[in-house]
Design brief:
single chain; alpha/beta; eight-stranded mixed β-sheet; two-stranded antiparallel sheet; 13 helices; 10 strands
């Protein structure tokens, strides 16, 4: 009986190793093929010609709460956009893939990370009290004094860029990973992805030049239907197409670009769709380098059953979780005794 169990154990571990190696090879192959291709040309919108240095988007919000300062050895800064009421989402990121101690196990030697959340003000004072307790416990919140509302998401993005580039941010960081609080990384796939990605960036990564990478969208049209959640009138945005922009689930940029985006935000007209706005501002940077990583994103409309099938068999790295329960079910598909010993107990 013991011999049978031992043989069964060897078979299972061998199969797992083969699947993991195959997945790593797939990630590396697709990464090389993806980054060899140049991003298609983006629509050039003449903001410099039309607006120049004239302030068309005045804003002067302040940070009312900030996290513990970086120690100076963090090379990667993970910044999560979060709604004030998403306490469970933030807790999930702190205890899974975005936890610096867990993430470090999947990064090349010499890389360390820091996780922060950026949010606005809640409408209820009782919610602010809970946020104050949360900050006292974790010291990882950047809170800005605008109302936390969907139509203020672009301010959240702008002040994320401001904090990143401030002296209280992470001045030694080489890479900013902007995420939404409902994203989950497949860390086994991310490990191979990150090595190849930073190698491809080369001097751009080392020198922190102006680069941005992610699920790049080109030449999309604005929603002109007033019934749409993303409706933009001609007054809000007069052009027929958008320039390059990145879907906000996850994207990467250099700290140097973050600073430039903040500086240019004053002279770029405000629109509330933050992903598109950041793309519009980034397009004003002449030296910008774009890296399309679209093939590493799971379809956001995939439900849990399909996501689970792809988790280990396909080279997707970034997944959108539709609920906190789905988040933990995906995470527990690949966790081990070190990263999440509680998965079997929780029976998720």
């Amino acid at each position: 009986m013991l011999l049978f169990r031992y043989i069964l154990f060897l078979c299972i571990t061998t199969i797992y190793a083969e699947v993991h190696i195959k997945q790593q090879n797939n990630v590396q192959k697709i990464m090389h093929e993806t980054l060899k291709r140049k991003a298609p040309p983006s629509i050039k919108i003449p903001y410099k010609k039309e607006y120049g240095d004239v302030t068309v988007n005045p804003h002067n919000f302040t940070f009312i709460s900030q996290p513990e300062p970086c120690r100076g050895n963090e090379t990667i800064l993970v910044t999560a956009h979060s709604a004030t009421q998403n306490f469970q989402r933030r807790l999930a990121l702190r205890n899974t893939w975005a936890n610096p101690r867990i993430l470090q196990k999947y990064l090349p030697k010499g890389h360390q990370s820091k996780l922060i959340f950026i949010l606005g003000l809640p409408s209820k004072s009782s919610e602010q009290t809970l946020i104050n307790y949360e900050q006292a416990m974790y010291r990882d919140l950047v809170q800005v004094n605008f109302m936390d509302h969907y139509r203020n998401n672009t301010y959240k993005a702008i002040y994320n860029m401001k904090w990143i580039s401030s002296y209280k941010g992470c001045p030694e960081a080489k890479l900013v990973v902007k995420v939404d609080d409902d994203v989950i990384f497949n860390l086994q796939a991310f490990s191979s992805f990150f090595k190849t990605f930073t190698h491809t960036l080369g001097d751009s990564f080392k020198l922190s030049s102006y680069f941005i990478a992610g699920n790049i969208q080109h030449n999309r049209r604005p929603f002109r239907n007033p019934a749409s959640k993303w409706y933009l009138s001609r007054k809000d945005y007069k052009y027929d197409t958008f320039p390059m922009w990145l879907q906000g689930l996850t994207y990467f940029l250099s700290p140097r670009l973050a600073k430039e985006i903040y500086n240019l935000s004053f002279t770029t007209p405000y629109i509330f769709t933050d992903d598109i706005y950041i793309g519009i501002v980034a397009n004003r940077v002449v030296q910008l380098k774009q890296y399309p990583l679209n093939q590493f994103y799971s379809d956001p409309f995939f439900q849990l059953a399909k996501q689970s099938l792809y988790w280990k068999s396909k080279p997707y790295v970034f997944y959108h979780s539709h609920s906190i329960e789905d988040f933990f079910r995906l995470w527990c598909l690949s966790c081990n005794s070190v990263t999440c010993a509680w998965c079997s107990k929780a029976k998720v």
